[in-house]
């Protein structure tokens, strides 16, 4: 294998945020292992939350290896939300990798390969590196211009003058113009605290100096004190990457300015390049870093929703992967009852469509449907996080829909109803009953949709 890519050059491959519907969930909301009626954004579902809390302590005591968790319950009972909360309880920066069972079927990549990739997305590595940096509050930021060497009237930036102040003194730096771009990208202004890595020129904005904290500012800003010590110093930097990030960074053909590699950068990275051999090599390097105390392993959470979509082959792989020393916490979720395992239609049906040998390794946590007042509170919490104003009668109406139809349906109506409310030009975009009724007319729920189809004998008339 080629020399491993330095970790500081590994970019995260985080996928688009799939957890937006759960942004109100901040944790399991337990105190001393007992669920508060509402805590961490959670309402009700107390037993399941307490069980999840136990799982968190088992993971922290490293007693979960070889086992996994199954959240079993009806649609919209908070299974996905619970899995997310478990990862939050395990700590910030713990990787959370949510997938859906059917995601592993692709024409390009083998099923087990796709599963392996997601296992590695769920295992983090925290790397501590001591680097030479210039750190301080920006006191001066002046680009020095020069005549454009190519002629014409244009001007180019020849140098960047920057003055940084720390508790012990100030330092004036004359930097390469390439750093100016990095500074613009980070939106650095006068009065910000930044650091510049001496060897790589990487610029990081730490926050706004707290000397400006009294300044009237509506933006959410993080105020930080002026850095201690000298401007030029050694600083311990911490970087979080996942094993999958490392795989990708090492698999991608390196360098080259020719057109093929330019195209390669534009196109999606080819998945088949990551071989088993490469992974083994990376594991070796990772283990070495861990032994040397340079890095810590941060096992995260792999959440497989709709687990009945996996087939026998995938389940066998899961069994084996759970026992590997590099395994994240695996949380499965299913809203199915007794059903055939995919690929095992000739075998007797199995609970949740999961084969018995895997079932035996699972801690099964049931989730239950919500009572009407819990539904109302969940909807209220959601309106607050989405920043919506809802008239009390409209809230009443939405809660009733949540009871009669489903919690999902009610939550889904919030966004279109708020659009209607804004269009109608009402003060502060307040949602009224008429908006909810209009949405109800515009969007069918599953039951009404099925009814309509039954009447039309298989055709959409
Ligand atoms: N106890 C709760 N407290 C607060 N919000 C909740 C609670 N339970 C569910 N929610 C919210 O309700 C919505 C639906 O829940 P979720 O997606 O977790 O259900 P699910 O059990 O995964 O359903 P499915 O089987 O359809 O996947 C989400 O926006 C979730 O954040
Ligand atoms: Mg779900």
TrEMBL record:
Ranges where the AAA+ ATPase domain occurs: 65-380
Reaction catalysed by this enzyme: ATP + H2O = ADP + phosphate + H(+)
Task performed by this protein: DNA helicase participates in several chromatin remodeling complexes, including the SWR1 and the INO80 complexes.
Top-tier EC class: hydrolase
Family per similarity comment: Belongs to the RuvB family.
Record GO biological process: chromatin organization; DNA repair
Protein name: RuvB-like helicase
Phylogenetic classification of the source organism: Eukaryota, Fungi, Dikarya, Ascomycota, Pezizomycotina
